[in-house]
Design brief:
The complex is a heterodimer of chains A (about 350) and B (about 325). With about 350 residues, chain A is α/β, with parallel strands linked by helices. Chain A is built from 13 helices and twelve strands. Chain B is globular and about 85 Å long. Classes of the chains: A alpha/beta (about 350), B mainly alpha (about 325).
């Protein structure tokens, strides 16, 4: 997919770093991917792998006191975002690129009404009067299937349930018809039944509006159900990228395989003794990101690792249509367990 | 809400009763005797006793207390031992300068402190923040009377921009009135301002780290809207609380400020009455101050409900 002319968003060799007391943390360490117009891209990985930082980097919301985009390029609709002025960036945020966050309980302002919070986005970016913006807010609440939207406009976030608040966040994010919606773990904090409703809603709205969605999650189940392509991240790097069917049909990076083996499965038959196969965790810990990683970031936890993996950065290997993997030992991984 | 306000107003009655009880007996147990002061330095014991009997101070304390409370319940605070004027009249005569000074100080302090605190939080740990907060520490540490004399020396004596002392009632024109209040308000307000600015900064810093501020920034809102609406409204409850607490601070500051600037307000009246052991006047003043404080607290509590929709009474 790289070099895709239809891509609305291109991230190239992104490096985002944070200064901490322990030294410089390389939270995102050379990540590249494209988002095509209207597609749903999943970014998966465990906590601390740089998913959220990648998202915040795209919107340039990394707090400047502690972090910065050290290197790399982010182009949106042909425009280089890393070079854009803060004012121009503010014009983009919430308008052409929107974001929704993990915590619906804390992501809405508790002292402003829902209507105000949606309408202010519309007033800011579309320059319409408040009255019209409130109408738009009402339409948006209706669109995200909140009952009695006109009454809800004047309610405060504490009067709404978690699922409703996330619907409000979605209404807000989509109120100016963005080209890209970045959803950072949008359902993690919600009940399972509500999760499904919210994901379904996002997909339906995507069909209606043509907004591309970047769905950041640690949940492979969510990825399987909702996305078209997947980027797998580990320790600030992209380790594998593939169309979703290809990834689940044949995961090629040992880390991706490890992630899939760590999912509890109900469809596997229990044996005669009534025990199910044990869940396999990935041994070891995520490496500390304060030291530069030579070689493959996953080498220390990888059953396939060789000396070369520890000393030389892995090549990006093409493994089918749109399927790439950063691994020295793809052939051995394909052949089976170590 | 109305029911709450009515309930709160009734709840002030026991508070005022306790204040009345304390001030009455505290004054009488404190050393010093108004009869001796009136009778003069060379008075004989008989003369002093005669004065005491005339003032009713020879009666049992409990009896005196009940006489006073009965008067109070009829809206009568008694008569000054020295001037023979009704306490209510003395207080109402002196009320305007003190109210004017308190309000102008409140206005100056709040109007400066909140922007200062907001900017300091916004530019936290940058040069402007350090300068402003350094100034706040200095302002907080500076006694009112020291600052008052420094201000008088430069603005009134050296540059002759403002009057040295005195007070012009508002009936003498807006500018003379305002002019006479500038230096006292600044002198009295600096400590208060420093306090509010520091709380504003601390409260804003906490709010600026919240998720909903990130949401506001992710919407591309203008900085002033994020700071002044999204952040400040959330930061307001602690700020308003401190403004309320500070009003107690102002009441004690008023006494000193009025003395330094020779303003004929309640502060001066209090100092004079205390020095002369003018019991009815001191009692009346303390009740007025306590009542003011209770009302301020009520206003603050009610304002919470307007600032934070999660608070309901």
């Amino acid at each position: 997919m790289s070099g895709n002319a239809a891509a609305i968003l291109k991230v190239r060799d992104l490096h985002t770093q944070f200064n901490t007391l322990d030294g410089v943390v390389r939270a995102v360490d050379g990540v590249s991917f494209d988002v095509a117009r209207g597609e749903t891209l999943g970014i998966v990985g465990e906590s601390g792998c740089g998913k959220s930082v990648t998202a915040l980097s795209i919107l340039r919301l990394i707090p400047p006191e502690t972090g910065r985009i050290a290197q790399g390029s982010i182009t949106f609709d042909g425009e280089e975002l890393t070079a854009l002025s803060e004012e121009a960036m503010k014009g983009l945020r919430g308008h052409r690129i929107s974001m929704i966050f993990q915590e619906p309980m804390t992501s809405l302002n508790p002292v402003l009404t829902v209507g105000t919070q949606i309408a202010e986005n519309v007033v800011r970016h579309l320059g319409v009067p408040w009255r019209a913006a409130r109408e738009r807010a009402c339409e948006m609440l209706d669109l995200v299937r909140i009952a009695d939207p006109r009454r809800r406009l004047d309610e405060y976030p504490h009067q709404l349930s978690g699922g409703m608040r996330q619907r409000v966040m979605i209404a807000m994010a989509l109120s100016c018809d963005p080209q890209v919606l970045i959803a950072d773990e949008p359902t993690t904090a919600l009940d399972v039944t509500i999760q499904a409703q919210i994901l379904q809603l996002m997909l339906e709205l995507k069909e209606k509006t043509g907004t591309a969605i970047v769905l950041i999650t640690h949940d492979l189940g969510v990825v399987a159900e909702t996305t078209e392509r997947v980027v797998v991240m580990y320790a600030g790097r992209k380790v594998e990228e593939a169309p979703v069917e290809a990834l689940f049909a044949e995961p090629l990076h040992p880390y991706t395989r490890g992630l899939m083996r760590a999912i509890p499965r109900l469809d596997v038959e229990a044996d005669a003794a009534g025990t199910r196969p044990r869940l396999q965790e990935i041994p070891g810990l995520v490496p500390r990101l304060t030291q530069p990683i030579v070689g493959c970031a996953f080498a220390a936890r990888c059953g396939f690792a060789t000396e070369r993996c520890r000393t030389e950065p892995p090549p990006v290997v093409a493994a089918g249509a749109g399927h790439t993997v950063a691994c020295w030992e793809v052939d051995r991984v394909r052949a089976g367990a170590p | 809400m109305t029911a709450y306000i009515v309930r709160r107003l009734f709840a002030t009655l026991p508070v005022m009763a306790v204040v009345a009880l304390f001030v009455f007996f505290l004054l009488r147990f404190a050393p010093g005797d108004p009869a001796a002061i009136i009778a003069g330095e060379d008075a004989t014991a008989e003369a002093i006793a005669a004065v005491r009997a005339k003032l009713g101070l020879d009666r049992p304390m409990v009896e005196q207390f009940f006489v006073w409370t009965l008067q109070l319940l009829q809206g009568d605070m008694g008569v000054s031992i020295f001037s023979n004027l009704a306490v209510t009249r003395l207080i109402s005569q002196r009320l305007e300068p003190t109210v004017a000074l308190t309000l102008s100080t409140l206005f100056v302090a709040v109007a400066l402190a909140i922007p200062i605190g907001v900017v300091a939080a916004w530019k936290a740990r940058k040069l402007i923040d350090r300068l402003v907060m350094g100034f706040a520490v200095l302002g907080f540490a500076m006694p009112v009377f020291v600052l008052a004399y420094v201000l008088i020396y430069f603005f009134a004596v050296q540059w002759q921009l403002l009057p040295v002392q005195g007070y012009k009632p508002i009936s003498e024109g807006l500018w003379p009135f305002a002019e006479s209040l500038i230096l006292p308000s600044v002198a009295l307000g600096v400590t208060y301002m420093a306090l509010i600015a520091r709380i504003t900064r601390a409260s804003m810093l906490e709010v600026l780290a919240q998720d909903y501020i990130r949401t506001a920034n992710a919407k591309g809102l203008a900085t002033d809207r994020v700071l002044l609406l999204h952040a400040l409204k959330n930061a307001a409850v602690p700020i308003v609380t401190v403004i309320g607490i500070g009003i107690a601070l102002l009441i004690s500051g008023v006494v000193i400020t009025e003395t330094v600037f020779n303003i004929p307000g309640l502060g001066r009246l209090t100092v004079d009455a205390v020095l002369k052991r003018d019991y009815p006047v001191v009692q009346g003043l303390i009740l007025v101050f306590a009542g003011a404080k209770v009302l301020v607290n009520l206003v603050i509590d009610i304002s919470y409900a307007f600032l934070d929709p999660r608070i309901r009474y």
